[in-house]
Amino acid sequence: MTSVKEQEAIKKLMAFLREWDSARKVARSHILDNFIESNSGKTGPELELEFSQGASLFLARLTAWLRMTYMYGTCLDKLLKSIGIFLSAASGRRYLLEFLEIGGVLTLLEILGLNHLREEDKRESVKLLQLVANAGRKYKELICESYGVRSIAEFLATSTSTEAQEEAQLLLDSLGRGNPKYQNQVYKGLVAVLPCSSPRAQQLSLQTLRVMQEAVGEAPRGVVEPLLAALRSVHLEVQHEAIQLLRALMACEVRPALLKGLVALLTPPRREAFALSSETAQGRRAEERAGAHSRHILAKESATVAEELIQLEVVRSLMVAMGNQDHAVSQRHASISLVYFVCTFPSVEETVRLAVGDTLFQLFMDSPETWYTKMDSFQAEILASSGMDRPQELAMLQATEG
After folding, report:
1. CA 156 to CA 86: how far, in whole Å?
2. Is 60 exposed, middle or buried (0-12, 13-18, 19+ CB in 10 A)?
3. Rounded distance between C-alpha atoms, residue 120 and residue 221, angstroms
């Protein structure tokens, strides 16, 4: 037989559940406020004590109301936070299993795809998915099997909230760890985010890809174009993360394609600058800056990579970038990169000297980091003409110099 105290506790629980069942939206909102305030951070046993061993009865009501109303956004943030108290409770694995049994993961993923819902609500949904993923490998697999990677990646790419984007990145990072069956799917999902219009989403995706790279091993060829496009970003934080991922990919089979694309970034079409709008010109300068800087880093870290870059005519491309007086930063990066190649490879020194002439070459070697600030327009033309398709044009310029 139950004690009087236990009977009173059960009556209290039943009264609470009847209040919930009969309450309308406003009253339920107040109940949720009180529940969140009183129970945040409690363990599973503490929740059971609070609900007289009947906490699961309240969780079942919360999940049922969620499934019925999530499309309308009714008290959605409070509802998700309340469910989160159960899912995050220490020694409360039973609550997680109960939530999953009623299709909780699918409901959370569907919330992410509803355009009319608030960012705050979607962020709470992502946080619940984090709790599911952090529970172990089989739960990560469940999310992935439910097409979760695509939904989360799309949310990361389209979200306008920095906080929500960071939560989505944490979730994708979790799904990419300790989940060998689906880690390639997560990797490709992150790559799919790179062409989006949000610099923050690009930055977060690149960071996560770099962390995942060692576990993935061989990168898919589909990463090449999106990564090269990220290097063209006018946002320095995106360029930085793209360069870091680029370095990690130098041990992969995609290296030749990446190096070829990097060299192409440095070589604009002849007289391109006259036809560019200011916005496009800014993007072009960003490409050249990133191209020269990344090549310098890669060449210094690996003699093999440096030799491959030379075979891809990076020297000519660097000279063209040095002649671009529209952007001093690009000139500086290109100059620093070129002096490395000249000092490391005698054949490059001879090539550059022949291409630009003794006077310009000596000026370059005397002060490679600042010489471009003293370069006149005629000398810049000689450098920019290093990429001419017709060698006789370059020869004519050099003859005029002499």
Report:
1. 26
2. middle
3. 36
pLDDT digits 0-9 by tens, 92-118: 999 999 999 999 999 999 999 999 999
Non-local (6+) Cβ contacts of 373 within 8 A are: 328
Nearest in space to 128 (alpha carbons), one of 63, 57, 49, 51: 63
Tokens of 328: 């001093």
Q: Which amino acid is residue 286, in one-letter code?
A: A
Single-letter code of the amino acid located at 157: A
Q: What is the largest CA-CA distance in the chain?
A: 110
CB 149 within 8 A of CB 172: yes
Tokens of 225: 């174009």
CB–CB of 353/345 below 8 Å? no
The residue type at 247: R
Backbone phi, then psi, for 52, in 5-degree steps? 50, 50
Tokens 């949310």 label which residue? 155
Concatenate the DSSP letters of all residues of 214-256 into one string.
HHH-SPPGGGHHHHHHHHT-S-HHHHHHHHHHHHHGGGSTTHH
Nearest Cα neighbor of 261 from 300, 298, 236, 216 is 298
**Distance of alpha carbon 137 from the chain centroid:** 23
Residue 390, SS3?
A: coil
Nearest-CA neighbor of 279 among 332, 232, 240? 232
pLDDT in tens, 244-297: 999 999 999 999 999 999 888 876 554 444 444 555 555 555 565 665 668 778
Distance from C-alpha of 7 to C-alpha of 285, rounded to nearest angstrom: 76
Give residue-wise pLDDT tens across range 323-345.
888 778 778 888 888 888 999 99
Q: pTM to 2 decimals?
A: 0.85
> Which residue in this structure is represented by tokens 């069942």?
21
Query: 168, 127 in Cβ contact below 8 A?
Result: no
Distance CA 259, CA 266 (A): 11
